[in-house]
Amino acid sequence: MKTDSKRALVVGGSTGIGLAIARFLAERGETVIVTSRDAGRAREVAAQLGPLHEGLALDLAKPDGIAGQLRGLAPLDHLALVGSERDRNTLANYDIATGTSAVIVKVVGYTAVIKVLMPRFNAGASIVVLGGIARRVGYPGSTSTGLVNGAVSSMAQTFAAELSPTRINALHPGGVADSPAWENAPTPYLETLRSRTASRALVTMANVSHAAAFLFDNPGVNGINLEVDGGFPTF
Ligand SMILES: NC(=O)c1ccc[n+]([C@@H]2O[C@H](COP(=O)([O-])OP(=O)(O)OC[C@H]3O[C@@H](n4cnc5c(N)ncnc54)[C@H](OP(=O)(O)O)[C@@H]3O)[C@@H](O)[C@H]2O)c1
User: Which helix (H) or strand (E) holds 20?
Assistant: First the structure.
């Protein structure tokens, strides 16, 4: 394994896309700190990545506790904000508690993490924030998802100015077919999505990790919203 001594924090790195990004960074030699709401689970996932990596408990739904949970974290080169609570709210059945929590986790929680870590970014550091194409493609049940991913879009632009020279970019996947979120999706539904994707292939976690690495690494890219969706929707 290569080592280049870079340090990365993946918030929401215990499963799915966050774990895929954590693995990608670990495999190229970065020291990765993964978070979960559960300290034991975070440590377990970190151990699976290898002996250099660390696990940390962090709950984005309780932003007042974030500064304490990140206390003592050494300076970072890369920060991926990936954690989210799945929310299928529709307008007709809008549930205030889950709707509020979705906004707190991704909007207030992500912002609080960045604020706390602002003084702890090394020179050349960069941040990737996960949104999703629900920011522009609506479907029944995307009420909260669309709202919070719209907010993520504006984070990239606003925070790029405030964090300068640290870079921040947002990454918006389409439906990531091999992520746990889709494991029970009916095949006909996946086929419909695929037929409406210009590349005729659904996005994978590897595609998303590759795009995150591009955003982390390219010093000329700052304040952008990158969509990784295979060209969706097309007809
Ligand atoms: N999957 C897709 O098709 C897709 C498409 C577009 C965008 N996205 C976006 O990509 C990101 C990852 O999606 P995913 O499907 O891989 O998610 P996932 O499988 O549901 O994993 C969610 C992650 O977030 C963490 N998490 C949940 N609640 C949290 C909280 N209150 N505080 C801190 N961490 C919390 C979970 O950790 P613990 O449970 O261990 O705490 C887990 O690591 C999300 O931001 C999502 O909106 C996903």
Answer: helix 16-27
